[in-house]
Design a protein that fits this description.
Low-confidence stretches: 1-28
Number of strands: 9
Radius of gyration: 21 Å
Strand order of the largest sheet: 2-1-3-8-4-9
CATH superfamily of the largest domain: Periplasmic binding protein-like II
Number of domains: 2
Strand content: 5-15%
Largest sheet: 6 strands, mixed
Length: about 450
């Protein structure tokens, strides 16, 4: 395989995803709720500029741009959409917030909105309207975008679910008929795969999405970056146990994971360098749409499973959250809010969610009924990603500190240091403690 990355290897997915989005009967349900109304009067002569992350499934941007066109045709408001990689959206959003100029609407990740809440437009009216109409927002949405418990500083868009992606035939060859449901069995499986010459691999570089597995690792053993009072507690016996487990995991990994960013595990899996990794549904869709016969041959063998449950005894899922921020500097606040309301209504959101092919999990309860989740049983594990999401700042309150610590990859770096042996588990935890305390100042 050559030059695989999420911006390119799914170019051909439009055939499947767009057909599902735009074909007859794409929207086959209606929300069973009382009628809700929201009156927003866009400003005369309004024009909007939207900055969003680049599509990883072609059907995403195809359906999104169809909806943008519908909005313009309905309102007469011109909308410019710029697409950038995750790594580029964050600094550009920060510049826009600090200078008071730039895009009107920004689609960003995790709790970036909490880096500059005073620079964001209050969208409480939009969120309350949508929540009442579509069965309510999942708890994680409110945790991320209602830092004061009252005002919404962004409109939730969804989450890119992270599940275990694996080769069923390789698991069976290693002696496992089903994917392990606990961390003890998971480690034994990784060791068996390594012994068979078909190892696993997980990103240990500064990967915005795929590095979030390190949150699962720490939480599954009872570790936390901060407690409920926002006190940094990462240097704990529970964290040390998690890091010792990480070291045992790393011994089974394919080479190079310390430098892996978000595209690398896709490339490695599709090139048959690894048999299991954590990822969104994009690997599966690449196997369905690639022009490379070696890749398409993987389609039937690919399976998805939830993260194993650790010693804490409960699921500890970490997924990439997406939000939609309206910048306070916009000259057209009503037009911007009307755009987000329009894009989140069933007539637009359902086809877009379907176009994403399972890559995005919905933020509103009613959209659990979208047909994309049942049209293929391999999609279903991703449906409840946002419903089950534990926010990255767990167990503390989200805000500037949690956003900064997340953007600084403190947990991921700690796991990488301990797993690779660059530092002992205790040394890695102590360093993470000091780094986090710079954000969570008492």
């Amino acid at each position: 395989m050559t030059e695989f990355n999420r911006r390119k290897f799914l170019e051909g997915s439009a055939g499947i995803a767009a057909a599902a989005s735009f074909g007859a009967g794409a929207a086959v349900w209606a929300p069973a709720v009382h009628a809700q109304t929201l009156s927003l009067k866009p400003e005369k002569g309004a024009k909007l500029r939207v900055l969003r992350w680049s599509r990883f499934v072609q059907g995403d941007i195809d359906a999104y741009m169809v909806n943008v066109k519908k909005f313009t045709e309905k309102t007469g408001i011109e909308v410019r959409v710029d697409n950038e990689g995750w790594e580029d959206v964050r600094p550009k959003a920060a510049v826009a917030a600090n200078t008071g100029a730039g895009p009107d609407i920004i689609l960003s990740t995790n709790d970036d909105a909490n880096l500059y809440p005073d620079k964001l437009l209050d969208v409480t009216d939009v969120c309350e309207y949508l929540g009442k109409k579509y069965g309510g927002w999942y708890p994680a949405c409110q945790t991320y975008l209602r830092p004061d418990g009252k005002k919404w500083i962004g409109v939730p868009l969804g989450a890119a679910g992270a599940m275990m992606v694996y080769r069923q035939s390789h698991l069976k060859a290693a002696g496992f008929d089903v994917f392990p449901k606990d961390t003890d069995g998971f480690l034994k499986m990784l060791q068996a795969l390594k012994a068979k010459g078909t190892p696993g691999g997980f990103a240990l570089g500064n990967a915005t999405g795929d590095g979030l597995w390190t949150n699962w690792l720490i939480w599954s053993h009872g570790g936390q970056l901060v407690d409920t009072r926002n006190k940094v507690v990462i240097d704990s016996p529970e964290t040390i146990k998690a890091l010792e487990y990480a070291k045992a995991m790393y011994a089974t990994f394919a080479p190079g994971t310390l430098s892996w960013l978000d595209p690398n595990n896709n490339k490695a899996f599709l090139d048959s360098q690894v048999s299991v990794t954590n990822n969104g549904i994009s690997i599966y869709y690449a196997s369905k749409t690639s022009q490379d016969p070696k890749v398409t041959a993987l389609k039937e063998d690919i399976q998805h499973a939830s993260y194993p449950i650790g010693p804490v005894g409960v699921p500890t899922e970490s997924h990439l959250f997406f939000n939609q921020m309206v910048m306070k500097h916009t000259k057209f606040p009503n037009a911007a809010k009307e755009f987000l309301r329009f894009m989140m209504e069933q007539e637009q959101f359902d086809p877009w969610l379907t176009g994403c092919g399972g890559y995005i999990s919905q933020p509103l309860v009613a959209y659990e009924k979208t047909a994309i989740w049942t049209v293929d049983p391999k999609h279903t594990p991703y449906r409840d990603a946002l419903k089950n999401l534990r926010p990255a700042g767990y167990a503390g309150k989200l805000g500037y500190a949690s956003a900064g610590a997340g953007a600084d990859f403190i947990v991921t770096n700690m796991v990488a240091e301990a797993a690779s042996g660059a530092k002992s588990p205790k040394e890695a935890a102590e360093r993470a403690q000091k780094r986090a305390e710079r954000y969570y100042k008492v």
